[in-house]
Amino acid sequence: MLSRVADSLFWLSRYVERAENVARIIDVNAQLMLDLSPAKAEALSRQWLPVAACLGDETAFRARSRQTDAAAVTEFLVFDRSHPNSISGSLATARENARTVREQITTEMWEQLNRTYLWLMSKGARQAYERNSYEFFQRVKKSLQLFQGITDSLMMHGEGWDFIQMGRYLERADKTSRLLDDAFFLLPSDRNRPADVLPQWLSILRSCNARQAYQRLYAAVLEPVKVAHLLLLNENFPRSVVFCVGQLDHALRRVSGVGPGRYSNLAEKLSGRLLAELSYSAIEEFWVRGMHATVDELQTRLNEIGQAMVTTYIEPTAPAASAAPAGTLAAMPQ
Known about the structure:
With 334 residues, the chain is an all-alpha fold.
């Protein structure tokens, strides 16, 4: 497969996943306002900067707007085409990548992505948002989930599909980890006052469609540390960080043909090491250390995997990284 094609498929998938996750986060934060008292909801509606910060877009938002209320942040993250991480910007980039690899994807994939993009760019989408924001975000999420379902059902599961998997799960791990960063809560976090932070943790579950999974595992009692365990370390939940890293690692190894426990390039080495560390970690270790420090490290390591994947398959300009000799995974640090 050409590096250009692999690059387009990787970013096509990553931007589709990014758009869906942004829609989830904005929708859930909007719904959170309905669960609060009118006075608290009004106060929070004037300060939505943590939502942009959670997505890593605080600097870009400040460069465009001085207002930090819900309307300004939502406009920036949903409809601002000039911002590459907004829903509109992400779908525009995904569509352009899909256009360049039409021969690699199915007609149904192209039609679904193109249909979603054209609707989002229309006046009807803006009117739908102003009329009922909940229904608007439901349509966005379902349209993108349909694209992913079509991809898995109809596309040949060869190298192209593997690069789509890499993009999807790398982006999903990134966004799930960001939701757990206690520095970016809309509501102030105070572990000594559980009643004040439980609505926020419930919103985190909703952002990942994890509320029912949590209830099946832990009954109805909501405990922040158990939420963190589900979203970080549960190997059976498809939006947890460890599940996503596992799928990313599998996709990398399908492309190279190297089995678990060994690596042929830096990307496999980094993904295998992170997967092993997560698999043998306890949530209490992360909790004592602090979720902000944990998320910071995860972000760094996910970025390193992404860069190593690009260096290995997309822009192989660093022989030392792409030609690493096969060997066993390094032991986990103490």
